[in-house]
Amino acid sequence: MRDDFAMNQVVGLACIYLSPTEHYQLDCFIGQYIKTRNLRTVHNINHLLSSTLERYPGKPPVMVNELNAWLDKTLGYRAAHPEFLLDDA
Question: What's this model's pTM, rounded to 2 decimal places?
Answer without folding.
Answer: 0.76
